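Hey, I'm writing a tutorial for new members on how sequence and structure tokens pair up, and I'd like a real worked example in the thread rather than a made-up one. If someone can provide the structure for the chain below, I'll link this post from the tutorial.
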Amino acid sequence: MRKLSIGSIQSQLIIYFAAAILVPTILTVVVGMKLIYDEVITRAEMKTLSDLNSAREIYKNKISHIESIVRQTSARSLVIEALAGRNMAFLQNDLPKVLKREQLDVLTIVDRNGTVLCRARNPGAHGDNLLNDAFVEQAMRTRQIVSGTGIVPREALAKESPELTVQAAMDITPTPMAKPRMEQQETSGMMLKSAVPVFDTRGGLLGVLVGGVLLNRNFEIVDKIKEIVHEGEIYGGQEIGTATIFQGDLRVSTNVRNRDGSRAISTLVSDEVYDAVLTQGKRWVGDAFVVNAWYITAYEPIRGIDGRIIGILYVGILKKPFDDVLWSTRATFGGIALGGIILIVTIAAFQARRISRPLKTLDTAAQQIADGDFRREVVVHAPDEVEHLASSINQMAKKLEAEKQELEAWGNTLEKRVQERTDEIAKIHGQLFRSEKLASLGKLAAGVAHEINNPLTGILTNSSLMLEDLDKDDPRRDDVEIIVKETIRCREIVKRLLDFARQTKPQKKLTNLNALIENIVLLVRNQASFRNIDIERHLEEGLPEILSDPDQVQQVFINIILNAAEAMNKGGKLTIASSLSANRELINITFADTGPGIPEDRRERIFEPFFTTKEHGTGLGLSISYGIVEQHGGTISVESHIGQGSTFTVQLPVKAPDTGGE
């Protein structure tokens, strides 16, 4: 077999044909892999930031829980009387019980001069002054509750309990890539604290009650973050999600594990994260090698009550699952590319072998074809074999032109399909992300509501009984009335939390939306908030009845109408309209107000749970409404312009969607 010359037409055809296809193919594969990698990592970092937001809320809820315990204890009349009368025996007997029952590490009471009267964990240690404690000093100075995170020196921990000094003390473990530390041991502790002023019946300051939980070697918060955010998911024998609380740059509470399975406390954060979070006070998001594995991580500073950065809150997602997906994708792309290369080279060789003994004219023509000029026809005068070859080249050129057009058309179609599929995946991912977030928040809301409901009922019952027993002239009556009023308000908030968590299944029946709207208008128009509001109705006659839960739909409409009234607190016009869509498949209900409008940054979040701009709002009204409309197979949207009002549009299907069992 004759060896091919690099300059022969056959060799040139193989080279040019293969190059024309291979280069775009390889570039497409490389760019595609890069885009997929960037998208996967971006999504992972967004998930990590979402997890960090959830972790922050859990951390804040723990502080609020401690504040609630201390506030309730300080409000007890027996404690107030004991503090006023300096009844040390009662305090030394009662406060330790509260500390043990509520699982606090510190519960200390001081008089108005800052002198310690009783330490619940160490009743014998009293008489010293705590005005040098920032929480106590600020609570006395402002006469308000002070809650947050603080660093407690070893000497202060020792006075509370020698056990706390042992719990807080850590020998620092040398950590690669960490900022060098001069000290080899940390003796102070990081504590969640709340200082609550105690007042007598005349409003005079009697002292301050301080409660706290030491975070060092306390894994309640980090484990709760892992349980709620990641639900204990395992991949390859490792927990996917981790959380850590740093005291400064030192891990004091974590569920990151060493290779032997122990918790990796007493290690340090990396130098890069130290500079970004502790020095510059910024969030840090990115890949990081944490103890023994790579994680996609997010860090943010923890600040004390004076605003100084005293620690770091961290969450991380194991990077291995994402790497495995990326490697699998790369293998798939590589296999497709390799198969395409083999196919392309085979076709190129086959076409090249059709040429036997190229002539100058045919060589020139072939070169032109290789350059992409497929429309030029070759005309030669030669023996039959050469003319047949020329005719074959002409036919080949026509076929290549047709294949090129077909390939271009297929490429355009493929690009469109890929874009459609990408949009579909992004939409599904967004729905899944929101569902996961709502499910997590629903579980958290249900847990918080159930935890609060029982003690709240006790408070309301006892305070109501106290109110009935008090004379009208009793100076304590106003305070008790405030307790009853605020407890009822808390009970309403708990009820809304439970409504949000339960997402009750609609009890559907045929409903006339116009009649429902008329009833709602009659219900609200005489309320005080609607006295300066003109309500106009433009209801299309003959709207078909739809299958819906009228109570839930009424709840949605009333939520929107009341929000509009609050937006127009100085008066305005509310226009309610109903209409049937052009395809007669949807009924549109619009609520247009003349309020100040909603800023764009808030407009994007108004349907998120717990987002509110009201002073006493819960942020659940529109979230519950969104869920109700979604359960009915409809949509709810808002359009708003600053200074021009807002328009909420609810679309409900005329024909109820099949819910699989209704």
